[in-house]
């Protein structure tokens, strides 16, 4: 048994450094984003943050990678002249985070409406947590919401859903170690839930069970997989 | 938040108890209940745990459910920037500390703008470390640096070319000053910077007024006509400053400092 060869954990390294995965946007929006990346002072940054959040909720691939383009725009907006600054502080980041907060508040309705949107939301929040740092430190303000999402995914009604388990383990692979450093007792508690789910929950799919076992081993190994475990889980992945 | 999370906010203790003696969150520190009877020690102990949403000026600040994320992250960034600046400053001070040690400290002088005096006092390790103070000061500095005038100034006069007393110098937030002294330094610094305002009539000047900007003191426009300060565009500057004094609407939103200003 093995995890599908298409699964790719960790940050996607692309041959083109500039690949922000914006192909899924319509052409006009792509133009807007490209302009924002070249000259952030010249565009409506509130609109830019808005389109990015909207798209992240629809597009699974983008939701997992949007952090990078956001990071770049934030860095660029720091360096623009005072005359182009729309106000004190970082307009783009502020709008992005506040919009994200609204979506987070509505997460339960989103989950009821569409599992896909829900997992996109979680991926996006976690990706932002991964890429948008404050002086190279993770944003403390995002730690409770991120944990909240992961705890939600660890509930029994989510665990029986392979799509949600997949999302959960993806996030833990990417940001688990950082999250643990920010709050170890919470991570311990989360993993208690995962252990319980793995052992006791009967309506888990076999893939779901496999994913949980792998993440349990992953964390136990210090957020890395031993060679033998790697072979066991990923033996059919082409090099 | 789901029930399983142990970090869910703690409820007020004994909410169903008789209100007169009840241990509400407001009676935590009171010796007597509303009926005058002394509260027992045990009640105090049970209620000594405060809900996590309880904040004090010394704590980290409101939890994320109270603030919006944008503000929370900006506040985080402020604090972390100020801490980083402090480490850098300390290292810089220690580096120049050694040659200063055998100089005699001038006694009784309270003029902290005397650079020699300041160097000695910081060499002793006497710097401002209170994060709340540093953050407040940094905000005031940011208001000044976020102006067209400041941008034009730094482009025009490189740091090496700056003359003491002539060219505005950003107040040093790490030096120990009283609140009044600091606010005054900021005020004078901002006034000096006005000399580099874009020429009057420039539409961009209007954009400079940030309605979100709150200044902690009143800007005294009269003292802007400082005869000692020279600048390249002295005549134009004096003219535009004089015009400012007569304009009906102040250029920036101002707010009088509260009781702190003694």
Brief summary of the model shown:
The complex is a heterodimer of chains A (239) and B (262). Chain A is mostly helical and 239 residues long.
Description:
The complex is a heterodimer of chains A (239) and B (262). By secondary structure, chain A is an all-alpha fold. Chain A has helices spanning 27-38, 45-58, 60-78, 91-105, 107-113, 115-131, 143-153, 156-159, 162-182, 184-200, 206-220, 227-234; strands at residues 133-134, 137-138. Helices cover 67% and strands 2% of the residues of chain A. Chain A starts with 26 loop residues before the first helix and ends in a 5-residue tail after the last helix. The relative contact order of chain A is 0.11. The radius of gyration of chain A is 19 Å and the shape is elongated. Chain A has 12 helices and 2 strands; from the N terminus they run ααααααββαααααα. Chain B has 262 residues and is mainly alpha-helical. In chain B, helix 2 (69-100) packs across helix 3 and helix 4 (131-145) packs parallel to helix 6. Chain B has helices spanning 41-46, 69-100, 115-123, 131-145, 148-156, 179-193, 204-208, 234-246. Chain B is extended, with a radius of gyration of 25 Å. The model of chain B is unreliable at 1-19, 42-48, 105-114 and 218-262 (pLDDT under 50). Chains A and B meet through helix 4, helix 7 and helix 10 of A and helix 2, helix 4 and helix 5 of B. Chain B: One of its GO terms (molecular function) is histone pre-mRNA stem-loop binding. Chain B: Residues 1-71, 100-131 are annotated as: Disordered. Chain B: Pfam families: SLBP_RNA_bind. Chain B: Belongs to the SLBP family. Chain B: It comes from Phoxinus phoxinus.
